[in-house]
Amino acid sequence: MRKSLSLLAVLIMVSLFALAQVRTVTGRVTDQQGQPVPFSTVRIKGSKAGTASDADGSFTIKAKEGDIIIISGTGITSKEAPVGASGTYLNVQVSRKESNLTEVVVTALGVTRQAKELGYSTAKVTGKDLEQAKPISVANGLTGKVSGLEIQTVNNGLFAPTRITLRGNRSLTGNNQPLIVVDGAIFYNDISTLNPDDISDIQVLKGSSASAVYGSDASNGVLLITTKHGVRAKPVVSVSTTGQVENVCYLPSYQQTYGSNGGEYYVYDYTNLTTYIPFENQSYGPIYNGATVPLGRILQDGSLDMVPYSAVKNQKKDFFNTGTTTQNNFSYSAGDDNSRFFLSGQDIRSGGVMPYDQGRRDAFRVGGSKTYGVFSANFSLSYTNKYTNTGNTGSIYDNVMAAPASIPLSSLRNFASYKYATTDGYFNDYFYNPYMTAGTQRYLQTDNNLTGNVQLNLKPTKWLNFSYRLAMNSLDRKWEYNVQEEDYSDFSKTNTVAVFSNANGTGIDTLPNWGPKWIAVNNGLTAPTYETYNYSNFLLTSDLLATAVTDLGKNFNLRVTLGTTYIDNKITEVGINANTLFFPVFNVQNLTGIPSLSGLNYFEEARRLGYFGEATIGFKQLAYLHGSYRTDIDSRLSSANRFIPYYDVDASVVLSDIFPGIARGNFLEFVKARGAYSVTGNASALAGGSQYIADGAYATVPTILPAAGYGFPYSSVGGYGLNTSIANPNIKPEQVVEKEVGLEFGFEKGRYSFGITGYDQHLTNGIVYAQIPRSSGFDQALLNAAVTENKGIEMDFHGTIVRSSSWTWQVGVNYTYYHSLVEAINQGTPTLNISGFNYGFNGVQTGAVFAVVGAAYPSIETNDWVRDPANGKVIVNTVTGLPSIGTSYVNEGNSTPKDVVGITSNLTWKNFSLAITADYRGGYKIYNAIGQFMDFSGISSETALAGRQRFVFPNSEYSTDGGKTYTANTNITTNDGNFNFWPGVYDEVGSNYVVSGSVWKLREVALSYSLPRKIVAATKVIQTATLTLSGRNLLMIRPKTNLWTDPEFADTVGNAVGATTENEAPPTRIFSATLSLTL
Amino acid sequence: MHNRIKILFILGPIFLMGLAGCQKGTFDINSPNPNVPSVVPAKFVLSSALAGSALLQYGGGQTDLMNTYMGYLSISGGYIPNIAWETYNVTTDFGSANWDNAYPVLENYVFIENLANQDSSQANFGAIARIMLAYHFSRLVDVYNDIPYSAALQGANGILFPSYDKGSDVYTALIHQLDTAIIIINNGAGVATNPGSQDIMFGGQMSQWIQFANTVKLRMLLNLTQTANGPTTIQTELAGLNGSSFLGAGEDAIINPGYTNSNPAQQTPIWQTYGFSPTGAANGDENYLVACSYIVNFWSSTNDTSRPQQVFCLNNSGVVQGRAFGSNNGTETSPNIISLLGYYSYPGSAGPYTSGLVVSPTAGSVLFPAFESLFLQAEAAQRGYLSIDPVATYESAVSESYRLLSVPNYQTSATAYYSQPGNAQVNIVGSANPITTIITQKWAALILYDPLESWCDWRRLGIPASLPVSIFPGTTATHIPYRLLYPTSEYKYNALNVAAEGTINALTSKIFWQP
Questions:
Q1: At CA B101, angle to CA B100 and CA B103, rounded to 5?
Q2: CA–CA gap between residue B27 and residue A638 (Å, rounded)
Q3: pTM reported for the whole predicted model
Q4: Which residues pair with A44 in a beta bridge?
Q5: Residue A754 CB neighbours (<10 A)
Q6: pLDDT confidence band for A22 (50 / 70 / 90)
Q7: What sign for the dihedral angle of Cα A187, A190, A196, A198?
Q8: Taking CB atoms and an 8 Å cutoff, what residues of chain A touch B361?
Q9: Are the beta carbons of A773 and B328 separated by less than 8 Å?
């Protein structure tokens, strides 16, 4: 009872019942390291009066002189402290037993429980661990630290987008990312809008059992984020400043041997490599020889750029900038007996590696609490303004990679006035100068994120607590796309003279009848354009909770929570496209014609009311049984499908307490076994995976859409067409049944711990927009048809390897194994395409990410060469030596890791500390679409392997008897090894670009030095001063077959990860230095 | 019982009663969808369906393919080669838009037909829908033979995986549908609502819809000439029809909702494929495809100097120059040497043209040119199925081709052309094989307008007999394909039903009406 009381105290922050005594004593319980010890029991010896310390270890108790205050609690050694004659402040230092069993864990709905009560797996990441390497996004700080939690940073760039999953994927087309709850309320804004410095800790509820009480949102687990609200202590001001530099590393492998030619002037035979084409973007020309050759065409003023015909060193890398970021933080924290206060501000300014990319994020937060009698209130309010100014990464990166190696790219930065860099003067007939693309086509986005959360608690008696919370999230976004295009001169549009040179540099020939610059005639934009939209997303949540804690006789205790939660989500968007402008003044007033709505004027709303309860019954602190139940009324579903029950039952048993023989001796401290079973739901597939419930509104209603694809409305004629997706009024949420078992061990009094968990999640009624044959008149149908299974094993080890007066070394190792299987999609439908297709140059669909019945999810499928089924060898034509493309797709494997290892190490020596995070992800494949593009361009290193000559297709065979027998091919060469082979033949087959995604990464290294107290104290102002040097993404080890990029990158943050394109800029390394002071 | 438990039992229901605080209707906000309608009048679906039909006729992909098969266009070589295309290595992706884009358009006609079946005032809409369904389904049979028909387009009724019908059965059913449509129009005269301007093909002139229905029927019937029972069927079905029953001279079936150049989707479909975006960028195939030497040589050998430059640009030397399909000749890649399509004034060439085939982004989209109707009538007359003068009808057809291409003084030019003495490729009078003359000229006239119909004629009659195959090295085919393979989407999503059609070879599997 005492312990549950101590937990109860969390809900009210400060105890209220104490015997009337002489005076009020306040104090704080801290451990050996000076860290607060929350929720310990504070009693007066010989009296029943008592209280509990709060979240930051503080307590208030009425006592008189001579009383002995006893501090006890789970996980600490009891300590007595006498109340002196005077003074009202008591700092009690206790020693921690360091048992993980008694750690206090925040669970769903903010209910705090002891670790030993939990029947399911959770993990905690402290704010300190999160921000050790000064990540800009919270998600980056979580990477590698918890088993089962996978953070995939799918691109670099400003505020890099991340995908977060707990225990992999369940839903084929729904959202698989966890629910984020901040200070008890559902958080809809992007996690990257949170200031990592504001976070007190993050509790990771890994499975759906842990989160079941969130009902139809619960199947993906939950990240429970607690922000700082101030502590009872004297006011502390913290300031820190970080400077960061970022550089491109790991560019795709490219050839530096062959110069430009794109098929010009070759008749049937492309192997002689004689003609260098000075204006080509494809590199199928002669071998670089160092001669001085012309580049591009003769300009209007008669000048002609002459360059060495040789590869420019670091040509591609030097295109990019060194990214720089500055981060300035300050915070103020204070608290007294009845109130807490915290405020913070952060300013991040960043210049990206892509030329002209800029970003800024300013985050502000205030939070606090106040207690008055039986009432207490707490609040937090945060505002984040995020601005980004970015370019068309894909087309810039394309043109950088495609540029033949001899182009002095980095000298073309000044596209406005350097004559060989301007629109007219750029060497290439077919594409723009990438610097110009970067400088003139800009996306500007400003996000205003506002979150507010107020909570009122009423505690009428010591065993009962009511709380009501009202919270809101608001995102207002203004997005703009400005294109400031310069037109080509009449000279470029009409000049038909092209310059040719042989690579020997023996002279320049001009050809008067070649035709003008291709892009000037075909693609030259003549006017600036402008597009904009405004988007707003508003979420209101309102929660009412009642919690009761009571004994049931001598051996049992009970905790019950009942509650309701109401959420209302509204999304509006209005976009306008001004097409062309008279002048580059970017707004719609300057347009030249009629502005068109870009299909972006809509309103969506959805509401949900959940009512729920949960209860825990404990038996003698040895065994616990916990259950939860919830039903949601969801406006998106028909009334018949609303009352679906979601529930969880879990239990834990401290085996070592029941059978003390197990933990005899000092080595093994405890053994706990646990198990959980839950049924939860998810209806986010209605919204195509969006986490916002409003996005899933109206999916059940058949619609007829404006026929915009056919140009409607015309000036006098309107047109509507059926939605090609069949709506389904009877759709139900997906159902996930999760079974979970786990064992936890503690060794050497908390010095080491090990936990292992196995889980199995079975999804039925999976919502899919199943692809159906067009002959049905539609292309997809909304159905409850998919079935998936998702199993895994998670292991976590934490240990203090070295602990001495000056040294400590703590190591964490976590391992996760994932296994998934798609059991059904829709009757008779074996696959479901969940991504866009990748294409070869000739429009062949070369591959995509799929759900495939009988395979892991997601899987990459591609087209492939026709192979001999007996041995997998590629079959070539006896005449042409060429393989041919098979008609059906082949499964190349799963595109998310099967094995993940995370390693953290924290070494401290006196005032130094070194923190390292590394991880491994393996057992999966990645589709590198940029490889296709590079083979098209002739810039990839692969295209140079055979010296651009005819070659025997590796590992091939042929048949001379119509396929009855096959002979290994040692002599039939391809009819071309150059322009007629790589683009148009080789790049049309997706399987050539699928390789292992295995990778080891050294993600974070942070070295800190805290100035000795003596020196700091001398300033009289500064309390602590710490200098930190850190690096992120320092090392990436990939198999040799991965010639292209970081396998973590993907073209989406949705489920369809597995393919990278040129839209993902090259990986970068980040170094930073931070100075932190507290005043 | 423990007091505290009692209190809990009391509190629980009170909490649940909190639900009552939510007013009735709080959760009934999902319908109607505030952004798009669930019900619209038939006329708005008609206009978009017809616009869809126009786009199908000229959409990139399938028409490109057939235009190259039929000797009209070649791949320019200014890009990398497309070996599968240039060697007839037909895959299930070839021309898949022909199928994948067609069925959803047809679904809209089915929707209109269903609305009309429930409301007799909408009879004209229903009749138009039936005619357009027959028009499109017959084209699908002509490309794929067996197709989902009776079970098709019923996804909304729960048939997600339609089975296939025999091509010949589909033809029979469609001819019946066309007859029914004509009856509906006649019965509804003066009663049923006129589609008016939402009929973006005939502007509500229902008599033209009857002519169109008969012309579509004629086209289908003539495809049966080489089948066993074909002649009998044709005789029976054409009984009572005469020249005025069909689209006649000047009566092109042209779709135009008001095409403009103000945004890419509002351009006329052929311009969307072969022209330029409103900002001047190439729409895609503008210089991917160029003049094919086969038709250029044909025009030259028949002394046609008018039509080539209404279709193609002049090159730098002031002539229309073609490239052989499958050519790999790198010296031909400049658009200054090989003619591009269209009005387009290439620097160094004469122009710009103000008329012709790919003339402007705002021109109406020709679904069924009058000359095609006249060529069909000429063949039917020549075969004795229609009692009209085959010679005059043929000459009118050639003349109409000149008119549609905006040849200046088209009648004079056309007359001079088809009157060339002793040239059986142009002059039907005295031709030893008038059918060959008719079909040859029909082939020449159909360039870009309807390559599928030329393909049907070649498959049915082997005309033009000299139609070349690709000269791409390694091409083994001795003739162009007979059909397309069912699209990837059917093999992926309707696997069982398409499997029942067995193995299909694009070079050898035939359409039911092929000899």
A1: 75
A2: 10
A3: 0.86
A4: A69
A5: 16
A6: low
A7: negative
A8: none
A9: no
